[in-house]
Amino acid sequence: DAKTTQPTSMDCAEGRAANLPCNHSTISGNEYVYWYRQIHSQGPQYIIHGLKNNETNEMASLIITEDRKSSTLILPHATLRDTAVYYCSPWGSARQLTFGSGTQLTVLP
Amino acid sequence: DAGVIQSPRHEVTEMGQEVTLRCKPISGHDYLFWYRQTMMRGLELLIYFNNNVPIDDSGMPEDRFSAKMPNASFSTLKIQPSEPRDSAVYFCASSLLDVAGGTDTQYFGPGTRLTVL
């Protein structure tokens, strides 16, 4: 199974873009990259996913490198409510999401 | 839609007791997943169902754990007998297969925090 590496923590000023990196160098060719976040004591919340191409939705943008060994989640205008632990996970035919320790994003006023 | 509903939200029990966790998936979803989350091991998939049929239960720790899905709107995860090492947050998630894209996005419930004394 592909493993992921994320920084333990990051700070971001409110209103600025938050860029959260994820290393997934062992991801398989047919595995997607999914991003979720978890606000304290709540269930994980889906953010975005992608395979090869960059993706954008109402919550965030996902940039995947051409070699697919890493990706970056971008929250374009972070708010205090975006403070959470962010997880990236490979996803494939086994349908299993695997969250490591994630990145604690703290948005500062 | 109310989202995935789990009950109870908190459960405290004594070692050896039977524990039953309940889940109501999002209406229309055809996949249901049970996960366990701990600080030490992160998020672990225990079992998942497709159209009420168990597909992969390789993550179920041992015979003390069992899961059922009697219909499309209800599932249970039972632990009998419970042990202190079962203490964790148990999440239920559901999804609908996107046939065109070949993916399904899992939506999680709020979880059940289980403490076994």
Number of strands of chain A: 9
The largest contact between protein chains, plus residue counts on each side, is: A-B, 18 and 23 residues
Overall mean confidence score, pLDDT of chain B: 94
Structural class of chain B: mainly beta
H/E topology pattern of chain A: EEEEEEEEE
The level of helicity of chain A is under 10%
Flag low-confidence runs of chain B.
none
The averaged pLDDT of chain A comes out at 92
Largest sheet of chain A: 5 strands, mixed
Anisotropy-based shape of chain A: globular
Task: Pick out the low-confidence regions of chain A.
Answer: none
Overall geometry of chain B comes to globular
Which percent band covers the strand fraction of chain B? over 45%
Strand content of chain A: over 45%
What can you tell me about this protein's structure?
Chain A is mainly β. Helix content of chain A is 0%, strand content 46%. Chain A contains no helices and nine strands. In chain A, strands 1-9-8-3-4 form a five-stranded mixed sheet, with no helix packed on it. In chain A, a hairpin with a 5-residue loop joins strand 6 and strand 7 (70-75). Chain A starts with 8 loop residues before the first strand and ends with a strand. Chain B has 117 residues and is mainly β. The model of chain B has no long low-confidence stretch (mean pLDDT 94). Chain A binds chain B through residues 32, 34, 42-46, 49, 87, 91, 94-101, and chain B through 4, 31, 33, 35, 37, 42-45, 48, 56, 59, 91, 93, 103-111.
